[in-house]
Amino acid sequence: MSTAKKDNSTFLLKVSLRHNLLKEIENPIVMETHGGYGHIGARCYFGLPEGVVFEKDAAKSAALAQQRPAWAVYECDCVTAIAAGVGSHLPVNFLDLDPYGEPWPVLDAFFGSKRHFPPRLAIAVNDGLRLKLKTGTAWATHSLQEAVQRFGNAAIYPRYLDVCRWLLAKKAGQRGYSLTRWAGYYCGHAEQMTHYAAVLEMPSDAA
Fold it and tell me: Deepest in the core among 66, 96, 115, 154, taking most CB within 10 A?
């Protein structure tokens, strides 16, 4: 119940973040990793002719299939599927992550998978990990081990946006990307949610 309320409180911010980011990509082909009932998709991706969306819940997946009949809709765990290359039949250039918790396993799966990587890639993230970090447990969070070494455990919570930018740039860099545009902010109850958007680009000779 509380999770739904927090999500609803930031819904318009999520929509605005994506609308602004879509302006950065010509002919966006979206991969939405946590589709839900498609509320974000209806406001942001309506009319896009093709895309990929994942959702674990059967009822939500059915709603997504009705909402986006031309899209590829997968009822499965997105991390496992993306790591295996699911969705690679499309040249995705806009990645949308809205997990209930952390996004880092999904990003690792995406960048580590065998698929087409476009010269310009946009990423929009709703990151719910900061609530957990408030108690100083970054050291026990597997995905943040490198960040703890870089920033120190005590700095992870107050500097989480800096951590997110650094981690995303590091992960994307392993695929040859440079982070060229960035925007982010805290929001929701007690600012426990973190929203950020990024544009990644490859050198012209590497694309």
Answer: 96
* Lookup: tokens for 43: 């406001």
201 close to 182: Cβ distance less than 8 angstroms: no
CA distance to 23, 121, 133, 163, per residue, from 159 (Å): 28, 25, 11, 6
3-state secondary structure (DSSP) of residue 102: coil
Q: Where are the alpha helices (DSSP H) in the chain?
A: 2-9, 11-22, 39-44, 58-67, 78-83, 104-112, 130-133, 145-151, 153-156, 160-173
What pTM, to 2 d.p., does this model score?
0.93
- Alpha carbon distances (Å) from 131 to 30, 48, 135, 157: 28, 34, 8, 9
| Alpha-carbon distance values, 56 to 18, 99, 117 (Å) | 22, 11, 25
- The phi and psi torsions of 181 (rounded to 5 degrees) equal -135, 140
Alpha carbons 72 and 85: distance in angstroms, whole number: 13
Query: Could you read off the pLDDT tens digit of each residue along the chain, which spans 207 residues?
Result: 334 344 467 999 999 999 999 999 999 999 999 999 999 999 999 999 999 999 999 999 999 999 999 999 999 999 999 999 999 999 999 999 999 899 999 999 999 999 999 999 999 999 999 989 999 999 999 999 999 999 999 999 999 999 999 999 999 999 999 999 999 999 998 899 999 999 999 988 655
Q: Could you tell me if 7 and 28 are in contact, meaning their C-beta atoms sit under 8 angstroms apart?
A: no
